[in-house]
Design brief:
The chain is of the alpha/beta class and about 675 residues long. The protein is built from 22 helices and 23 strands. Strand 15 (about 370-375), helix 11 (about 385-390) and strand 16 form a beta-alpha-beta unit.
Length: about 675
Amino acid sequence: MKATDSLLELPGVRGRDLEALRVSGIERVADLLNWLPKRYEDRRRFDAFPAQAGSGAVCLRGLVIDTQRKGFGGKGFYEAVVEDHAGGGLSRMTCRWFNMPFLQKVIATGHEVVLYGKPKESGGKVVMDHPEFEVVSDEGRRVHLERIVPIYKNVSGIPQRKLREAIFCALEIIEGDSLVPVHDVDPTYPRIEAFRELHFPGELAQADAARRYFAKEEFFFQQLRVVWRRARHADLSGRVLGKRTKLLTGFYNSLPFDLTGAQKRSVKEIIADMRVQRPMNRLLQGDVGSGKTFVAMCAMLLAVDSGCQAALMAPTQILAEQHHLTFAKWLSPLGVKVGLATADRREEVTDAQIIIGTHALLYDNVDFDDLGLIVIDEQHKFGVAQRGKLIQRGVMPDVLVMTATPIPRTLTLTIYGDLDVSILDELPAGRGKIITGVRVKPKISEMTKFLIEQLEEGRQAYLVYPLVEDSDSVKAASVVEEHPKWKKRFKHFEVELLHGKMASEEKEAAMKRFRDYKSAVLVSTTVIEVGVDVPNANVMVIFNAERFGLAQLHQLRGRIGRGEHKSYCILVTDGKNPEGLEKLNILAGTIDGFKIAEEDLRLRGPGEVLGTRQSGLGGLRFVDFLADTSLIREAREVAEELLREDPGLAQNARLKAWLLEQAEVGNQ
């Protein structure tokens, strides 16, 4: 049997099974082998039947000694009492499945079963609700017992046992030569052996090695796409900008402070890119408050001095308007005209040399004369198609993408391998120190007293909540409910309300009053996460802080500490979630965004940290290996070696076709 054969050729798979597999995208033998185990159970030895509830899942083997249906209607459940058969019948476990009456036809008294679930206390006894289970039969023991057993993601209509048996059978009769990959990333590890150890390892270490093999293969394709795209970009003929530096020099001399070393280094890298006759394709990555905006200004002044326009696209109207204010403040004295284009506002766009905007920049109602430089802020919040559409509005423009969300250094090669990267790893001088503290159920009276002391010294404060309005399903506070309470507590100060459901003009008016110090307190949701720059605001209280991610908390904290005053970030929590407390204590221990990103990666894993769809990694099956820098570098080296030996991929038409297909998808 070959990998390309239909499952019709596989013994024991017929009729309804074939249709159920087809619905899940499994039609060939190769598809079946690529249905990965989600975990493994070591069924050479089982856990002891627990005498009390525990925090973790256990895997048990026993004999069903009693079954019955209990309750009525929607509250009914099927119950099975399982005895520790191997242990001499000394321990028992009650298992319950709610609203699943059909199980009486599946589990019966006398059946030997394997159970996997979390034991809990109920009615004075230890029970398992909805455990995963398998009924064990003698004929299937060599596949399902006395070995390390794979547990698969469910295929609707196919029991785990049948799916496991089908894969076991396929691995016994398949021709290993038919599993040769498009490009072999590790000739020392036969692919058929990798598949066998992936599904039915003799030891868990073999499964880990097999997973690493297939992760490397997957990363090879991802890195080949990156390296190939980078090589194609290097062959493009662009325009030479940045030779004239009159505006840049005037801007630099007008600053009342000096740029940091990291800012100067990044500006030099950008100048070098712009002076080469190929389009710049650079990422500017920096922590919150590291001064990316000033670096972007320098780049845009170089473009204006070269006689073309520059545009900056931001993901939200608040951020675009903040950028417009900042650019106009610093660049108007130099005679540079700065326009604003959002869905609700258009200001001075005609004849503007620099246009700041939101998604409105993508459409024809914003006219560009000669767009030579594009800056995309918070680039991870835009899709590939949106970025591409703005680039197409220029003629081979230089592109600078920026992010204030630090990405773990271990992942930069994977996500931005086709970009040149500049990193701002210094904060400007003169910034106030930020003190971060975790407070478990603090007294509102004490917190109010501290806040009033800060307000009376002339400072301002952010009070951040996770919800706009109270919710029956989410136990967390909301700005709509809490805003009136804070108005009463701060009777001598103006208290502003801000959230995403307000009309754009209302949001801008609220932000303007806060920026102009006409209000002292801003009760807000996370709409202030990026782009809000009020140096006089030195206090932030984040309520239900455990509900936010580490990166988001760090972004929010970045709204304070932007002036010379000592700043305070207070993380309020109920303390019920140990993982949440660990997260908050990490944030309290450092202001280094890159360290925080590494910890976020450790706690949540790469898939959650990156957001696989936005990062372009949505198709990866081995996301957990993204933190393995050495593996990614190995895959990168294999990809680079392949393109060195065969730049046009003439010897591998399948790979070339795949790369061209990926390029088309990216351009859509």
